[in-house]
Each structure stands twice: as C-alpha cells, then as structure tokens.
Amino acid sequence: MNGDFYGYEDLLSEEERKTLLKARDFMQSEVKPMVNEYWARGEFPRELIGKFRELGLAGVAYEGYGDPLPRGSHLLAGMLAAEYSRVDASVATFFGVHNGLAMYSVYAGGDQEQRDRWLPAMAAMDKIGAFAMTEPLGGSDVAGGMRTTAKREGDTWVLNGAKRWIGNATFADLVIVWARDVDDNRVKGFVVETPAEGFVPAKIENKVAFRIVENAEITLTDVRVPEANRLQNIGSFRDVAEILRATRGGVAWQALGVMLGAYETALAYARERKQFGKPIAGFQLVQDLLVKSLGNITASWGMLVQLARLQDAGIFRDEQSSLAKAFVTSRMREVVAWCRELVGGNGIVLDYDVARFFADAEAIYSFEGTREMNTLIVGKAITGQSAFV
Fold this sequence. Notes:
Domain Acyl-CoA oxidase/dehydrogenase middle: 130-223
Helix content: 40-55%
Number of domains: 3
Radius of gyration: 21 Å
Number of helices: 11
Distance between the termini: 46 Å
Largest sheet: 7 strands, mixed
CATH superfamily of the largest domain: Butyryl-CoA Dehydrogenase, subunit A, domain 3
Structural class: alpha+beta
EC number: 1.3.8.6
Strand content: 5-15%
CATH architecture of the largest domain: Up-down Bundle
Number of strands: 9
Domain Acyl-CoA dehydrogenase/oxidase N-terminal: 13-125
GO molecular function, one term: glutaryl-CoA dehydrogenase activity
CATH topology of the largest domain: Butyryl-CoA Dehydrogenase, subunit A, domain 3
Protein name: Glutaryl-CoA dehydrogenase
CATH class of the largest domain: Mainly Alpha
C-alpha cells in the first residue's frame, strides 16, 4: 500500500532513512489514533508538544543549531513534511509554521546574535514559533498593501494593526510579526515574545479545514518591541520573499503527503470493502481512480525531489518553488476527490479518514500563495512579461 511507487525514499542516506522511519513510527503510533477526535473538536493536541520535543526533529535543515539533533538535507526535510501530512495535514502545518516559517525567518533574517538567542530553543521545541503576515484585509496583495505599522521610538518599535490566519498563534512563545515602517514604507520583521502587552490572539472558530490548527486573528495595539528583536537582515519585502521562496516548497511537500494519506487509505478500503461478492479493488473503474491517483503522486514526488536537490545546491529560484506549489496542490485536489469518490458514502465520515484529507486539501491549495499568484510568478519567468495587476 506504499504510495512511493518509484522508490524515491531510497534516495535518502541510510541515516536520513532512519530519521524518516522514526517520524513515521511516531505519527502512526502517537498521532494517528487521536487526530479525528481533535479534528472534530477543532483543537490542537497540546499534550503532544512534549512528545514532539522528545522526537527531536525540529531544525533538521538548520546547520549549527540544536545539536545533538540530527542534521539533514532539504530532501529529508521535504520527506518529513510529507510524512507528517500523510497522517494529518494540521500536525504537518504545526511543524511547517514552527520549523519552516518561524525558524527560517530567524535563520535567514536574523543576525548571528539573534540566531544564537532563539534558534537553539526553537530547535529543541522549548520555544514554539508562529509567523504573522496575512492580514484581515490583505492576502495576495500584502506585499504592497500591508496595513500593520511599525514606528520607531528610540530603541523601541511600536506595532499597531491586525493579522489573520496565523497558525500556532494561540500558544506560540515567539511570533514573527511583519509590519510596514511608517518612516521609510518598507516591510520589516519583529520577534514578539509572548505574552506581550497589546498583543491579543483570538482563535478562529467554525473552520471546515485544518480544524486542528489553531489559527488566530491577532490584534496589535501599541505593542512595544525592542530594536534587538527586529530581524536585522530584513530590509524590505524582497528579503521576506526570499523566506517565502524557501518555505513554499515545504507546502508542496505537505500536499504530497495529503495525497499519499488519501491514496493509501482508499487503497486499503478498496481491498477490504466488498460489493457484488468481491472486493471493490477488483473493479475496473475503482482501479482507474487508484492508478490516476498514483500517477499524480509519482509525478509530484519527482518534481519535489529535484526541487530539494536545487535547494541543497543553493541554486533554486522563486519560480521553481512557485511551479511546485501550483502544480502539486492542483494534483492533490484531484487525488483527494478521487479517493473520496472511491470510498463512497463512507468518504464523508471522519472514521474513514478520507473526509479529513479531502477537507484539509482546500486549505493547502490556498495558503502560501494561491495557484493563480504562483502561476503569474512562473508566467513572468518564462515569458519575460509581468501579468500582475
């Protein structure tokens, strides 16, 4: 039932393979038994954070931080993201926000003192991170229309505004807040250490996807942040875009994991479910759904393996991450629909898992740049013409 039909995992080193299997065992034994309950409740299983800490897989791709935690390639980091999503996309998002967006903001945007101050605790998961960019009235246009402001007063910055859809924000210790400097009109990054006066996160309720992720709407009212907490290597949104370029590929890996989880669940169901006196796996139209799903998975995996190699070589480009995000999430949408179709009426019941993959796929399809925005990035790169409005 393994969706790795072409053996891509064999590209990992022996040590990396052990790390991947460690994560797989953890997700199957510790996370899978509880995810449907927490998904239905719309709560994050905070009691798992201590076990995540013991697992010791945060900061895999950040050289020099968190020793003796295992180091690894971007290929390993991507496969880990897929492994988390293979069981639950919300738990994968918890890791993606903390280990990707938040940690990488400090790693790439902070100076050496800031990296040394925060990254070891984040790698050990003693401090949980969040990433606050999206705003109530700003999504795809946030680069040019960020409403959250920062005003410098001596050695202190005063932040005002609001953020929305911020994962981990209800319990994060460090929140990377992006704000527009009112003096030079450039976007800058600030590490807000919680709790902080004027920083109020409110959990977003009534979601139909990513229900385990505790997304929040954050209100910032005269939040005072020392200059020492301003990410020193961020001078404009161009620097922020470099962070998003790196993390966008992680979302594509997450989409791969959702496909794997839905496909493997549907395949197991097809082998067990009997109609007309035999398992439905023996019917042509059921096999057609499974093979189409496996084709999407295999093609997506191949694209992501090469993207990870480009990342490891330090030569990957923005449009390459964008193409992966746009392509893989589109294929994911097809796969979860086919798998839900295969499971029939049971495909809308949480007990059979496919419904959760089906719903969560919609969130992955939209965040970290919509398909349309990523298409325009790739379109500009291949034509030399910008179609952005």
